[in-house]
Fold Secreted protein.
Amino acid sequence: MKRIAARVLLPLAAAAALTGVAGGVADAAPADTPHIWVTPDLDLGGLLRPTVPAPTQLLAPIFGLITPIS
């Protein structure tokens, strides 16, 4: 019975420990540059910062046309 419990509890304990280590702490502080993550280690926010407001700037004239109609 001890072996069965060890075979079940040991992987669960290891998974819980690794989840706690990999989880990290969330940072709620406002950032100067937006974070655009390509991979978990590669942040392209600094390079792509000028492109972030592009969709709203491109769609602003269309929104201005649709708003009076609706």
